[in-house]
Amino acid sequence: MNPNTMSAAQSRAARALLDWSRGDLAGKVGFGEETVESFESGGSDLASGQIEALRSALMAAGVVFTEDGSAGVRLSDRGGDEGTRLGALTTENDR
Fold this sequence. Notes:
Layout: H1 8-18, H2 22-29, H3 33-40, H4 48-60, E1 63-65, E2 73-75
Antiparallel strand pairs: 1-2
Helix pairs in contact: 2-3, 2-4
């Protein structure tokens, strides 16, 4: 498998790791939920750019696509620090 592609099974597994619905993933890239549903069920072949957009959104959320030939996914070890949320910003955060 090309390192910049993603299978339907990897997409489903990555969403499960993140606890995202199909709608959550679709919303991250501006697609309709039916696009993700169709891709993951094997009902349609998306353009490579669309698959890469989905894959990039998953990677930005901490999903790592394994490169050992297993075509798997896992969560990154980076800790998932998103920074300070808008509602938690104070002058104390500037120090």
